[in-house]
Design brief:
This protein is an all-alpha fold. It has one domain. It has 3 helices and no strands. The protein has helices at 6-20, 25-103, 111-116. The radius of gyration is 44 Å and the shape is rod-shaped.
């Protein structure tokens, strides 16, 4: 941190002993140590806060990119779905036309009639008598 060698520390200690005096020097040294420890804790806390903020900002950017990617994929899927739906409807139309041409337009049981008319409301009946499951 500071480029102070052992000889400079000894010089500072001797000057402090002369200026402050031997009676108050331990109390001043203790107070200076506490202040230095507080300063170190404060600096490390600020570094940790800055690091956390940087990580949080990176997470926000990553989340935004992920959100944009998901939206792009959703748009692509929706577009492909519409295209596929269009192609299928077109092919069904061609198939209906081909079947209608093959059977004739006025032929009974035309496939397009079955698709366009609602199902009959008649109940289904069978000619077999009902048999019990357990005899």
């Amino acid at each position: 941190m500071f480029d102070i060698g052992f000889s400079e520390l000894v010089l500072i200690a001797v000057v402090a002993l002369v200026v402050i005096g031997p009676e108050r020097l331990p109390k001043v040294a203790r107070t200076a140590g506490h202040l230095f420890a507080r300063f170190n804790r404060y600096v490390s806390q600020v570094k940790a806060d800055i690091s956390r903020e940087m990580e949080l900002e990176e997470l926000r950017k990553t989340g935004q990119q992920f959100k944009e990617s998901v939206e792009d994929v959703g748009k692509n899927v929706e577009e492909h779905s519409r295209e596929t739906d269009y192609v299928i409807r077109e092919e069904v139309g061609h198939a209906e036309k081909t079947v209608a041409d093959a059977l004739g337009h006025d032929a009974p049981g035309h496939p397009s009639d079955a698709l366009s008319s609602p199902p009959s409301a008649e109940p289904l009946t069978t000619n077999k008598p009902a048999q019990p499951l357990h005899e």
